[in-house]
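Narrative summary of target 7.
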Amino acid sequence: MGLTEAKDTGADERAIVAQAETALEDIQKIRTEVSKVIYGQDDVVESVLLAILSGGHALLVGVPGLAKTKLVTTLGTVLGLDGNRIQFTPDLMPSDILGSEVLEESDTGRRSFRFIKGPVFAQLLMADEINRASPRTQSALLQSMQEYSVTIAGQHYDLPKPFHVLATQNPLEQEGTYPLPEAQLDRFLLEVDVGYPDIDAERRILLETTGATEEQAIPVITAERLMEIQTLIRKMPVSETVVEAILSLVRAARPGHGFDKTDRHVSWGPGPRAGQALMLTARARALYQGRLAPSIDDVRALAGPVLQHRMALNFSARAEGIKLSDVITAIASRNLN
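Modeled conformation, tokenized:
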């Protein structure tokens, strides 16, 4: 390496450090603002923010009343994103999401079609109770989630930038629901389990949400600033040790790759998107916690949210009452030490 090249490398590293410090300040402001409205769900807020900072989508799974919808709307406000919400129902049609063409007649009598954009044309789309819509309607989101565009009547339309889908799903009530197909689940960067708040958080909820006034979130950053942070995260270095840990974890989660517990209990395992998700979210988690590079601890912490919707137990494992989370924990314990 020549002297000039070495100087350039050092300058690039200093620039990334300076950008990371500024980004960390912005992230701290985001966390503070969200905490004014969302109580006692720090892990959930972190996971959803990691998905957005990584440029991906997230699936929030939890029973009703746990502030999933409120979290999404709050994040849209705080991050300065233009948002839309779709309540998924069995009679929802693809055109209700994507939009449709209407026939118009001009003053001169000339007729032409005009495309009216649907709610998917937003920077932050909330898909509420996504598993209540038919598979045909669910598939309408596939192209937009992967390609950030839609095609209507042969015409291509780009979606706004950035574009994120935050979907919610009720894990208990299965009557009248349609399980999400594996191809669509794989498009979600993370699956976030939303649990009940602890007693201190629930006490705060009781006191602060039933009075005459309620705290409101305000914008902290802009959509353009969010995209700058997303670009920075993709530039963060990842050590060979962490890369090998990600590969080891993902491959061990697939049947036929040498891990006995996977072979006995798992029907199908994660594809390459799982490794990509771990690479991105591990970087985002490092920055979120004030570090310049991810560690194996980041991979370990993200194993569940990244893998649990990209794997399935076989019939015998389900019959034995084995939980997928326990299998993932076992895989991580074996391959991330």
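The CA atoms of residues 251 and 257 lie 6 Å apart.
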